[in-house]
């Protein structure tokens, strides 16, 4: 039979079948294995019927779906199942299931790294980066102080690689947890349920010590495990704190610490703070 005749035969059969049917050719091995993998997750053992139709064998897996296999590729098709004996009318898909689970695990592990990179370069993490950069431009950085975060702003790239390694090691072979973790980062659902983060206070952030015109300040910005931003500024000089409180409406003050009324300080606040410090200089 020519390739044209074979393709025509398969096309004619496909018109009579449901959406659950698939035609087998060696070039379509991946698609067939994927379908069998889905089937194997329902149960390992299936009753099968092999219906001969000229140069085509139709393999029916109960009422779930069928595969149309050209007889010229029959031996090649059976190799998928380790040449198992199907004369008893049953097919065991356990090896297919194991292979499908391994493929899923590999694909999910591969998906984790780009998911983390996308997450930490989008809101709320890039918003914290923006505010840190605004602070650095106006008030400079004397040093980055220790902060118990999963990823620190000043070591972002190295920390991301470390986190990826820790997650793949912690959840090696654990497809369910890896999938839930990817979903949590993608959909911004709470991360606190994951044991790997239990020893950290925040997902992301920075704590910056600055000395601007002789005024010592500590700026802190974080993202917690519910993806909420928090910011604060500790100012050593109480007089400056009092003047800032008097001139800015969108803040609240507790002792020497200033907080925004929302999650973030607005740009105008940084200008007010800088102007007041200049007046004291």
Question: Can you give a write-up of this model?
Answer:
The protein has 281 residues and is an alpha+beta fold. It has two domains: 3-92, no CATH class; 103-280, no CATH class. The protein has helices at residues 3-16, 29-40, 74-78, 94-119, 125-139, 156-170, 175-187, 238-247, 267-280; strands at 22-23, 45-53, 56-61, 65-70, 90-92, 143-144, 149-152, 202-212, 215-223, 229-235, 251-254, 257-260. The strands form two sheets. Strands 6, 7, 8, 9, 10, 11 and 12 form a seven-stranded mixed sheet that branches. Helix 2 crosses helix 4 (94-119), helix 4 runs antiparallel to helix 6 (156-170) and helix 8 (238-247) packs across helix 9. It is rod-shaped and about 95 Å long. The N and C termini lie far apart (93 Å). Residues 1-19 have low confidence and may be disordered.
Counting H and I runs of at least 4 residues, what is the number of helices?
Answer: 9
- What's the rounded overall pLDDT mean? 85
Low-pLDDT stretches: 1-19
Q: Strand content of the residues, in percent?
A: 15-25%
Assign the structural class, choosing from mainly alpha, mainly beta, alpha/beta, alpha+beta, or little secondary structure: alpha+beta
Q: How much helicity do the residues have?
A: 40-55%
* Distance between the ends: 93 Å
String of helices and strands: HEHEEEHEHHEEHHEEEHEEH
The number of distinct β-strands equals 12
The biggest sheet, with number of strands, parallel, antiparallel or mixed sense and barrel status, is: 7 strands, mixed
Question: Any idea how many domains?
Answer: 2
Outline type: rod-shaped
Radius of gyration, whole Å: 31 Å
